[in-house]
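Look over this one:
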Amino acid sequence: LLAIVVVSIFISHEVAGPLIHLEKSMQKLADGDLTGKVALRRGDEFKEIALAFNSMTEEIKNKMISDREHLQRIIFKLEEMKIKIGQGVASKEEIDALVTELKQIGAGFKL
């Protein structure tokens, strides 16, 4: 009976341990922390899940970096347009071009 209990504890630790580690990493991602990686020592299905999770996290991080660059460009262009409008030199074509660019950037967001 003692052997069964010991084996049961060992097996549950082998299964639950990686899942708990993965769950903590998922919670970090949900909280906006994209710096973490899941590192599992095992070479089974849990390892495959960890690799897929790490790949997904990296893709999200790269997309957010790209989106941040787009937003910075938008802010810059809006600040330029604000100055031109204040000086009375903004043309309708420039405003239309900015609106078109903003629409194109916005279309890149998939929600």
